[in-house]
Amino acid sequence: MTLADVPVIPQLDLELRHIRKRYGDFVAVNDVSLQVGKGQFICLLGPSGCGKTTTLRCVAGLEEPDAGDILIGGREVTGEPPWKRDIAMMFQDFALFPHMTVAKQVGFGLEMLKKPKAQIAARVAEVLKAFEIGHLAERRPAQLSGGQKQRVALARAMVTEPRILLLDEPIGALDYSLRETVMLELKTLQKRSGISFIWVTHDQNEAFSLGDHVVVMNHARIEQQGRPDEVLSRPRTAFVAGFIQGNNVLEGKAGLVRDGVLEVMTALGTFRVPLLDLAPPAAGSALSFSVRAERLIERPGEDVPNRIALRCITVEYFGAFRRHVLEGAGGTVVKYDQFGALPQSIREGENIVLGWSLDNGVLHRAPPA
Amino acid sequence: MHWKTRSRLTGWLLGTVTIGFLLFQWAPMFTMFTLSFSGENGGTTFPMNGVSLHWYRNLWEADLFDDFKPPMLRSFLLALACSATTVVLSVCAAQAMRGRFRGNGLYFYLLLLGLMAPGILVGFGFAILTRLLGIEGAWNTTAYVVHVSWALPFGFLTMLAVFNRFDPKLEEAALTLGATRLTAFRRITWPLILPGVIGTALFGFSLSYDEYARTLFTSGSDGTLPLAVMAQLDRQLTPELYAIGTATTAMSLIVISLCAIGFWLRARALRGSPT
Questions:
Q1: Strands, DSSP E only, in A208-332?
Q2: Can you give the pTM of this predicted structure?
Q3: Which stretches are transmembrane (chain B) (predicted)?
């Protein structure tokens, strides 16, 4: 497919078309396509080494993709250097210039645009005030705390009001106690500024609470993308279901399809899982599906179609919920989460039957052959 | 006793060796320094006959110093040129190593081979080569090239160490903020590697300034200071030579102290003055 065949959509802040990047024999990014509408908050989520940071660096122009096109604001920039792209980037360890004062580094981007000195000074003062770091203007990075560094890095990146802000694990270097506050602030900032954020993280809580659109990556490919609630409630692959906390992934073989419901034979027994929009798989082919741990029902009634006999191994209390780890036939482990401060109803070592209603089973796409 | 606590005996032993080493390192210079202040009838060995500035005065007034002035100037200019060239080449070579390229391992070892090569052979070999090519040796051409090739591995190693500790994310941050590569180098990289650059410059200067073996065959008819000193030693040894040595050492110490003060001021500025 050549560029001429594809209509350029100018209202998109960013478009990636079949990006591919390899280092020697290692494929870091494989056929990644992504569309980012105006002023969106995108989270690239995945384990380390999945290609999310390389994808981000391709957008920044710090890496050159081997194939594919990158369009920023509808303009093809694939071969352009970073300084000609309408972006800014925030690095995990903030990458503040150690030899520059806060005011100097926040003004750096404006200096590069060759703005007059007076204008730079005014704008820097305004931005420092907005980020509540005006009193730090004459300090150097070595004299700042982690949270202050984060604000300076953000102010430095936002000062030129780029079209896209790229954030590489931007709060990974902060103390846990700070992260939640900073996350909220950043979300508000993104909404108010209308700048698209592309946020790389391995932390699913960050991704699902911040993103308008979550992109889950694994082994250089996009596994699934969509709204956070979509991805959470309907993981499309076994990887996504396993990566998101609180899912039970069960593997088995396809059986018969009746009324849009597939029978799946697993080590734990035969279960009925809705096909939804998936094509019926060939009988006997390997597949997987998932059930969220909090959707299991204790001692289900006769009307619940899917039932498993299990033995409870451990019970852990996390405060917000109680997690039960149970074992079934063939050593398959099943998790059951009980929310709400209810009294413990299953003891360790106890045998129990758990079940789930038909619509709580989520069938996965067949793995690529 | 805790395993991290040094025993008294070990402490004394290590202390003695350390102080012994420092004495061993500085004693020859100190001897020369002391003898340069000996009286008018003083010789070139102990005991000193009186204390005076006679030999310094002599040095300033006598013809001997006129013999030394041109080589001294030549050595100074040569060292400056060698220093500047070493800085440029070392920074470039170390930058090249950062980028990785085909055969960068070989390149690394070939550059460092300059450290191992015996100076007298390098000088002699180079002299043969230039004669073969019909090039007349001179202090500011052939000797200059040989001096740079001698100082380069030291500068290269220094700059490699500096870039090892340099965070490339800083350059990338500058690029994403709209700086071109040249601007990023000028505004971010250069100021941050400057201490290493000054170190490299000092290496380049001092290695060239006191180089004898490599200069002997390559400097042509107009010699450098080490050659002149050596020639004078062959002719006649007087405390004046000691005075020359002391004067030049003092000069070096002053330059190094200035650099050290500069580094200290800079480090304080980066930390921020305590308020």
A1: 213-218, 221-226, 247-258, 261-266, 269-274, 286-292, 297-298, 306-317, 321-327
A2: 0.84
A3: 12-37, 75-94, 106-129, 141-163, 188-209, 241-265
